[in-house]
Amino acid sequence: MGAPISHHPAGWAPPQPKSPEARATDDAAVAHRFRFAADILEGMTDGIDGERLGALVRWALRGEVGPGEQDALVRAFEAPWLAAADEGEFDGDTRDEAHKDIFRVSAEAHAIRSAAS
Predict the structure, then answer these.
(1) Three-state secondary-structure class, residue 43
(2) How far apart are CA 38 and CA 32, in angstroms?
(3) Alpha helices per DSSP H over 8-93
(4) What are phi and psi of 64, to 5 degrees?
(5) From CA 97, how far away is CA 60, in angstroms rounded?
(6) In terms of Cα–Cα distance, which of 76, 89, 85, 86 is closest to 36?
(7) Tally of CA atoms within 13 A in the half-sphere of 55 that contains its CB
(8) Phi and psi (nearest 5°) for 84?
């Protein structure tokens, strides 16, 4: 028999398990993103479509989404701003505010991970 066939590129090695400390800081960053995601979901009285929900959950878990999901994530973050605009409580660029929120919460989660390193 020949050498085993691998579907991995040459030089690939399986990921090494993270230390308990690294897992804890990752968990704290994930929890921070999920708290913000939960705030968005609580305010969605009209419901949320699967595309936005999937992007929001993947962002909360990983801190990023795939290239095809960026718009869905922005639309999820934009929902509270659109609701505030509908109520006359906000008069500005809802999409810009959504981008600012994504950046801010992502930076806060990154800081949580960095502080523990």
Answers:
(1) helix
(2) 10
(3) 20-43, 50-62, 70-86
(4) -160, 165
(5) 18
(6) 76
(7) 19
(8) -65, -40
